[in-house]
From TrEMBL:
Catalyzes the conversion of uracil and 5-phospho-alpha-D-ribose 1-diphosphate (PRPP) to UMP and diphosphate. GO terms for molecular function: GTP binding; magnesium ion binding; uracil phosphoribosyltransferase activity. The gene is upp. The keyword NAD does not apply. It comes from Planktothrix paucivesiculata PCC 9631. This is Uracil phosphoribosyltransferase.
Amino acid sequence: MYPNVTIIEHPLVQHKLTLMRREQTSTAKFRQLLREISMLLAYEITRDLPLRKELIKTPLSTMEAPILASEKKMVIVSIMRAGQGILDGILELIPSARVGHIGLYRDPRTFIPIEYYFKLPDDIEEREVLVVDPMIATGNTAVAAIQRLKQTNPFSVKFLCLIASPEGIKHFHSYHPDVPLYTAAIDDHLDEHGYIIPGLGDAGDRLFGTK
Ligand code: URA
């Protein structure tokens, strides 16, 4: 239905997302769930990572064993500040990945993203980039982040979120049809404040306990 969008429907992902959506879920629990769900999402997204063989010695023998070919070539780019929760989970799985940050906030009146921070590792032309942000609402932030990132000419780019709106996906795809988008859910619609309905509220506020 949506080109270049993959919905990750693993039962554990869906279960944890439901717990995160619940209004009564505490900040500590929300944080823990976001870390756990991010590991599960990363597991799915990294299925096609290339492997190479390395000669290793076990206590009993030697063998040519498979190992990631490019662990250090991966860059996780967190869109601040809510992307931090996904980043933390993924780094538990892929600890050698490099990390970039893009600071964008939404003007609450126009919903237009404004950049306040941008830092990426070197050699971005050789790196596979995974951009993370829990929510694609209007899609403005995601579109702006990818636009900015493309100026640096990365080897490849994927985008990972938890919940996307139909409006956000269409907007994203109209600007970046070449960028695969992974999400755990596509919700119903956006409200007049640009929030996803039913959604989970403001992901940054829920992650950091702010209001
Ligand atoms: N950002 C969020 O954190 N939640 C929404 O519903 C929309 C944008």
